[in-house]
Amino acid sequence: MEAYRKEIEGLEIVTPQQLEEYRIKFLGTKGIVKSLFGEMKNVPNERKKEFGQVLNDFKQFAETKYETAKEQSAGNGQQAVEEIDLSLPGDAMQTGSRHPINLVRKRILDIFNRLGFAVADGPEIEDDWHNFTSLNLPEHHPARDMQDTFYIHQNPDWLLRTHTSNVQTREMEKGKLPIRIICPGRVYRNETISARAHCFFHQVEGLYIDEHVSFADLKQTLYFFVQELFGKDVKVRFRPSYFPFTEPSAEMDISCLICGGDGCRVCKHTGWVEILGCGMVHPKVLENCGIDSNKYTGYAFGMGIERIAMLLYQINDLRLFSENDVRFLRQFV
Ligand code: 2NL
């Protein structure tokens, strides 16, 4: 016991691990104190009292050492806690950023809002009439092939809309004129996914119907729009085109933002980039939606938001918009 006392006195217990080792060695169920008590049975009866006292003293001694060391190491821990400076600034929270498609959509809508266009929306799951037939795209029309889409299994009349024109046909059917709306939304096409095509993308379409609406109104409105979006120096040109729902139809190009019209990869060395399609609403479309085409005329246009975002931010792969890679998304404010 004397030897153990010396050993204990000389021990330096600092870490919780050392404390636990000490406890197991001296005070544990198979520890030294326990085993010394086990010796009691070998002590003659007349000396048991004396031996018991010495043993109890030793036990007390060993326990005191444990308690003191425990308090000290707890004290060390306490000190460590107090060293944390609560007045320091915290870890910065990661804030998100807006998706480039949303940023561009907002810019487009803001411009048309200022021209008096109201935002309208409608269903992404649409029936054949509102997506195709009412827009002068009857069942076997070849232009339907270019807008091959996804059909809903349970009902062959239902499909994922291929453009946001369904919003406009629904608005026309309501019978309230004039109409001046801008329609943003997600649309679907059955396309093989690549850098330039995806099975879904985002569109903004506009529609203006009133008495005496002319192609000149269309040109001036779109010219104002691109000047607001791309800057006053932008040039425009209209090329004749074909859409089943407009007549006449045109595609609008702007002077290339990258090379200023000198020719580069973005404009394929033409100096021009296509940004939207447009035209005068086909009389048949007006009649399909219950509007008197002798009294009313209108223009319509449509553009892909991805395409405009790619031009504005010089993005060369459409897939980046839907991959949700934060290294890409973080770059837009
Ligand atoms: C494009 C071309 C266009 C329209 C969309 C439209 C809608 C109605 C009636 C007539 Cl309800 N036209 N929309 C017209 C011309 C072109 O979009 O390239 N979009 C990405």
TrEMBL record:
EC number from the UniProt entry: 6.1.1.20
Binding site for Mg(2+): 247
An example Gene Ontology biological process: phenylalanyl-tRNA aminoacylation
EC category name: ligase
InterPro entries given in the database record: aa-tRNA-synth_II, aa-tRNA-synth_II/BPL/LPL, Phe-tRNA-synth_IIc_asu, Phe-tRNA_ligase_II_N, Phe_tRNA_ligase_alpha1_bac, Phenylalanyl-tRNA_Synthase, tRNA-bd_arm
Localisation per UniProt entry: Cytoplasm
PROSITE patterns membership: AA_TRNA_LIGASE_II
Protein origin, superkingdom: Bacteria
Residue ranges of every copy of the Aminoacyl-transfer RNA synthetases class-II family profile domain listed in the record: 104-331
Needed co-factor(s): Mg(2+)
Molecular functions (GO terms): ATP binding; magnesium ion binding; phenylalanine-tRNA ligase activity; tRNA binding
Gene Ontology annotations for the cellular component aspect, listed alphabetically: cytoplasm
Pfam family, one: Phe_tRNA-synt_N
Chemical reaction(s) catalysed: tRNA(Phe) + L-phenylalanine + ATP = L-phenylalanyl-tRNA(Phe) + AMP + diphosphate + H(+)
Record key words, sorted: Aminoacyl-tRNA synthetase, ATP-binding, Cytoplasm, Ligase, Magnesium, Metal-binding, Nucleotide-binding, Protein biosynthesis
Cofactor note: Binds 2 magnesium ions per tetramer.
Family indicated by similarity: Belongs to the class-II aminoacyl-tRNA synthetase family. Phe-tRNA synthetase alpha subunit type 1 subfamily.
Oligomer and partners: Tetramer of two alpha and two beta subunits.
Name of the protein in its database record: Phenylalanine--tRNA ligase alpha subunit
Record organism: Paraflavisolibacter caeni
Name of the gene this protein is made from: pheS
